[in-house]
Amino acid sequence: MPELPEVETVVRDLRPHLVGSRIASLRVSRHRLRQRWLPAWNQLLLGRQVKEIRRRGKWICALLDDDRYLVFHLGMSGQLTIVARELPVQKHTHVIFDLDDGVSQLRFRDIRRFGLVVVVEDQAALEALLDPGKLGPEPFDLKPAYWRRRLTATRRCLKAALLDQRLVAGVGNIYADESLFEAGLPPTQRGSQTSADEADRLRRSIVRVLNRAIARRGSSIQSYVGGEGLQGEYQNEFRAYGRTGEPCPRCDTPIERIRLAGRSTHFCPRCQKKAVRGR
DNA sequence: ATAGGCGCCTGCTGGC
DNA sequence: TGCCAGCAGGCGCCTA
Hints:
The protein is an alpha+beta fold. Helices cover 27% and strands 22% of the residues. The chain has helices at 4-18, 40-45, 123-129, 144-152, 158-163, 173-183, 196-215; strands spanning 23-28, 50-56, 59-64, 69-73, 78-84, 93-99, 104-110, 116-120, 256-260, 263-267.
């Protein structure tokens, strides 16, 4: 579910509530997530204060006052929210942290359980988890030369390349489609057939689309909510994703849907054509 | 190198 | 009304 804009929204929402707060107590459900919760973590976390919280790709990392990290990944349906203690606990809530203000909780809820909550020992262990070999640069820090090089070095299609977290971190199915639409590039085009100009256009399109989505607090389709439980608004501005059969906002040609890299892919067959000039 | 398939889960929708 | 297939913001593993 959540891609970079959603995760960024969660982190921004949580930061003012979490930074400076201590974990007074916690509870964990017995359902396992992508990775099992280690019982030892309960003791480690008690009384710990959150020093800072930040995003890396689709990962959420909270630095604790013992230099450990509490790390979250939202998978497809994860929700990480600040909630008043007295509010009923929703089904599929897997971890509850009571904060030391005595009134609020941090809750991790995940219907499909593809998400992850782990405690990481130190900075080095965090770097191993988010190894640059597995997790590429942030889209906003993409160096044009790097991007051109990586993109043209692969024979995979652009859609598959965008979804590969090693090339660029944080782009998922929605924003891959939206970025390719913005750039006017066909999702099926091979990376190796991409000109320097096109690579650059794509890079700038990714940044623009993600920034717009962040400004709208991400996209809510089914389960996504931000750190304060609010839905996003960017789903109302999709131009390709999920708009199969609807008119292209630029040329009115019906948006098509195909399967690429195992994922549903939406595009305008007219605007997103190799070597079209203008529109 | 890379495509495709599966598995991990639950829930919703649409067709019959 | 029920049942079943297919779909869904991710990702890791396996095979060919």
